[in-house]
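Subject: for your reference before the review

Hello V.,

The reviewers asked for a structural picture of the protein, and I figured it would be easier to keep everything in one thread rather than splitting it across files. Below is the amino acid sequence we used in the manuscript, unchanged from the supplementary table.
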Amino acid sequence: MRVYYQEYGEGTPWIFLHGNTASSRMFEPLLPLYQSHGKIVLIDFLGNGQSERLPAFPSDIWADQGRQVVELCRRLGYAKANLVGTSGGAYAAIHAGFQAPELFGKIVADSFDGSTLPNEFARSMTEERRRAKEDPSAREFYRWCQGEDWERVVDQDTEALVHLARRPGPLFPRPIDEIQCPLLVTVSREDEMLSGHCIEESKNWTAAAPQITCRIFETGGHPLIYSQAEELAALICDFFEEAP
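And here is what came back from the structure prediction:
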């Protein structure tokens, strides 16, 4: 199937992974903060943006998106690419790191809510999407990212996340502290779209795994890569460019 991607610049690939109901367009205003540091790669996951549409999104949506990233890297011959995933894209980035650790250098999981979904996730997310579809600014964001068929894309995404939330157990094949790639997790205490579970879990990850760093912001909305754009960009660039 056809996956849309775009490359900017030269150097080590830094692949940016968008969140649910968004597309790679969300990163375009942020390019000046990153473009001088490496080859910036933007991708639209299948069913989103300019990528080929799907009859339905897979119920293991984030694992499937991780596989799309792995396949892209293999087809383009990327070696030790760095990943920046925000919101839902953070889950896809971690899945990719588990699926093919040899392909990736470092991973950033921004505005990420941990290894399990809260019990009320399906209900609250469905209600949030219902309200968003009635909000003019949200509708315009969806249209900007997805095109004129935005409502179909949003509904497909909502259905997939509801199915995922109803599956028991953790979201990843192994505990996060077993990930091989150096991982930076960034999250805000003010993020009303997150449960706060990640902040509690992060204490265990960092204690058990020296390759994991967590940066907790006191302020900032969802996602941090937008609400704290300059500070987060500086943090990500330092993390990627720091010697192992």
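For the response letter, the relevant points are probably these. The chain has nine helices and seven strands. The CA atoms of residues 42 and 74 lie 16 Å apart.

Happy to draft the paragraph if you're swamped.

O.
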